[in-house]
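Data availability excerpt. The first of two example chains:
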Amino acid sequence: MSRKEAILEAALGLFNETNTQSATTNHIAKAMGISPGNLHYHYKNREEIVRLLYKQLRVETSLTIDELPNTIEELQKHEELLIQVQWKYRFFFKEMLFLFSRDPLLEKMYIKDNIAHRDRISYSMKIFTQRGELSFPDERSFEFLVDSILMSWQFYASYLHTLGKTLDSQGSIEVIEYTNNAMQPYLTKKENTDART
């Protein structure tokens, strides 16, 4: 592991343990056993570190069109991977809007990626519909489900925080349950039958 990679790993650990406000570049350098000057040789500031961690997160979660789930069963397996990544980078989801306020470049990157992510969810839902696994009474219901899935992935950690709960690995798994329940009204008889067998 290179020095730059080790700094990112140390920063990720500190951000998850506390938050990005408490874990300054000096704290990261101390955890690494290096001088602040050495750290700043590799990274200009904390915002650059957060930005690179976000890029890592994006690489670990983004799929090409060909890789997208073609069935609800495949979607659930992909969600399990997403939850592992969300837990790994949980600081980002807890502090997302605050991080945007400190770094307009990060916000711009995320918005672009998030629009693409929504498009991928929409694409998968259309595939499930074409396969006869889902059925929607109208376009509005379809868009509602797409947004529900997207919001649960992004903001479930913040939702738990507003209830005085701390995000843990079990809380992350609840996101999958939320997504499954959101799809439940739109499952076809075929899909319900397949799920029971």
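And the second chain:
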Amino acid sequence: MQTRRIYLIGPRASGKTTVGKALADTLGWRFTDTDEMVVRGAGCAVGDIVERGGWKAFRDMESAALRAVSGEHEVVIATGGGMVLREENRDLMRATGLVVLLTASAEALAARLQADPQHAQRPSLTGKSIEEEVADVLRERAPYYAAAAHLIEDAARPVDEIVASVMRELENGENP
């Protein structure tokens, strides 16, 4: 098993943090979340960052967090849903670790977002309803997720099954 970093990508509410923590526990690795790194570094919530500096400022901070964590070893990294929008981020993740895409239907993601009390703290990406926004964002980002991923997992599956699948992929050792 040569991979020293696992990047979890996918839309908001796809389970990146939940799967990431379980995977890190299984491997005995550290877990980190790039959104949390950005919030800690900025000293304020994502919504405040976007309100003050716009999405570009947030994406710049997100890319900086990715660069910082990409040099660490034995770490599972949950990335923000938009991390894949920049080609440099997709390239960096693919070159330095195993990239796992967690997918789910727009309906499932919208239901998870509506049930999450943290949702109110995240700014809308489009100003539309949750259902419309999720469907639009998935459509827009699908090619970027596909371009970045080494492995695609259905986020509707139980966490332990996803972890087992990723572990099998690591055993094959064909990824960075």
